[in-house]
Amino acid sequence: MNILVINCGSSSLKYQLINSETEGVLAKGLCERIGIDGMLTYQPEGGEKEKSEIAMPTHTEAINAVLAALTNEKSGVIKSLSEVGAVGHRVVHGGEKFTSSCLINDESMKAIEECNDLAPLHNPANLIGIRACQELMPGVPMVAVFDTAFHQTMPDVAYTYGIPYEYYEKYKVRRYGFHGTSHSYVSKRTAEIVGKPYDQMKIIVCHLGNGASISAVNCGKSVDTSMGLTPLEGLVMGTRSGDLDPAIIDFVGKKEGLSLDEMNEVLNKKSGMLGISGVSSDGRDLEAAAETGNKRAQLALDVFDYRVIKYIGAYAAAMNGVDAIAFTAGIGENNIKMRKDVCSSLTYLGVKLDEEKNNVRGEERIISADDSKVQVLLVPTNEELAIARETLALVK
Ligand code: AMP
């Protein structure tokens, strides 16, 4: 069966068409500038990347453009839309309602809508993408795969904040965690690569990209994760602050004359490695700047690494041990020095990195020494494949 995987943002949309038997990607691409003008990127398997300007006043035109490209006589990969067996949609927030992926119907749409409050920037866009697909592909089964679902196994001690309990009761303020599809996929792959039963391992997954989070996966269940009610908590990210003293919001807001909304914008878009360095949110730019002696760029990289080291220590404590640590996502997969620096602070856990094995980018492999007590791995994440698998499991 061919499964169309859709990851819909407010003005962009990523897609992949995956053959569920071979798990190969038949075509993939991106729609950008939806609601502004519109740009489609389309790349068929083994073919050249094509870019075309197509008017996309709404997500419906964007998805229409994707479907037209997939069925195009020249470079299309399927003859007609009847060859799309199902659609898997990434949905950011499933609140406490969704502990796993679900088939999309009127009832689940309503329940997803009820989570909009918890992710006002993401969930409404995800719903628009679902509705546009329903309009253009009536009768094709669709599945919602939630970023939060994998972390719903967290115990109350891990998800409860130290604030009046009534805020949880009234507004569901608690830790939810994100990147769940990636943490689930990478932790399972880690167990497979190491060759031990998933339900008997203590794994720490470091998903380090522009958005970054760490999770503790004990016996196949997420027991803690660094992102919280929203993706702002935890690690220092590209432009997000991660953990900070909440009093800073009031203190800086008053000094700078910024409203709560404006402070929220500062913490989400102008903080993190961008805020510290004043150079860039991108790890590559920071490495280049640090090499030319830019001290703040170096500080941003050091602060990033330090926070990762602290969270790994915290999660080893939360699970009373750790068998494997996996690095994934843009920085986790590609930044050799970051992995080396982080691991050099984990010798107390019995981590011993093999520098030669670590000298690699984006390749699935064990990078710790043979006599390392804790196995360290590089596991490229594949959220689209994970969404396609979940979708297949529900529509079969
Ligand atoms: P993601 O959000 O997973 O796409 O990751 C984006 C981050 O990965 C950015 O900070 C990039 O600088 C970093 N990244 C991607 N490719 C590389 C690379 N080859 N070397 C170092 N960092 C990289």
From TrEMBL:
Binding site for substrate: R90
Site (Transition state stabilizer): H179, R240
Record-listed Mg(2+) binding positions: N7, E383
Obligatory cofactor(s): Mg(2+); Mn(2+)
GO cellular component terms given for this protein: cytoplasm
InterPro entries: Ac/propionate_kinase, Aliphatic_acid_kin_short-chain, Aliphatic_acid_kinase_CS, ATPase_NBD
Transmembrane intervals: none
E.C. code: 2.7.2.1
Task of the protein: Catalyzes the formation of acetyl phosphate from acetate and ATP. Can also catalyze the reverse reaction.
Protein name, per record: Acetate kinase
Organism: Clostridium fessum
Gene: ackA
